[in-house]
Amino acid sequence: MKEELDKKVTELVGRLQQERDELRVRAHLLKAELRDEWDEVEAKWDHIEPRLEHLAKGTKDSADDIGAAVSQVGEEIAHAYRRIRDSLK
Fold first, then answer.
1. Cα separations in angstroms, 27 against 10, 70, 71
2. What is the reported pLDDT for 38?
3. I need a surface site. Which of 7, 19, 44, 48 has the fewest CB within 10 A?
4. Is the alpha carbon torsion for 37, 22, 46, 44 positive or negative?
5. Boundaries of domain holding 16
6. What is the spatial distance between Cα 11 and Cα 6, in angstroms, rounded to a whole number?
7. What gap in Å lies between CA 21 and CA 27, rounded to an integer?
8. Which residues, 6+ apart, have CB-to-CB distance to 77 below 8 Å?
9. How many structural domains compose the chain?
């Protein structure tokens, strides 16, 4: 169970980092109304990234509770990144 959670967290962090990096390159194109959303998502990312890295390194907490929380926050961030990316098209 722990190895599965570690793998999911690692994959989630990788996907989010890639999406974030791609958007950061295009950040200069962000419309003013998207800047607030970008700043909000960045704050969430800055808050959760160290926790995800800690989790991936082998925390002993409940895998189910952590997995659910990570999934929820990760999906929130991913959804926000998709909205921002779609708005840039």
1. 25, 26, 25
2. 83
3. 7
4. positive
5. 2-87
6. 9
7. 10
8. 16, 41, 44, 45, 48
9. 1
Q: Token pair 């200069």 is at which residue?
A: 28
HEC readout, the chain? CHHHHHHHHHHHHHHHHHHHHHHHHCHHHCCHHHHHHHHHHHHHHHHHHHHHHHHHCCCCCCHHHHHHHHHHHHHHHHHHHHHHHHHCC
**pTM: predicted TM-score of the whole model, two decimal places:** 0.55
42: tokens are 């960045």
**2: pLDDT strictly greater than 80:** no
Q: Could you give the angle at the alpha carbon of 19 between the alpha carbons of 55 and 54, nearest 5°?
A: 10
Amino acid at 72: Q
Q: Which amino acid is at 59?
A: T
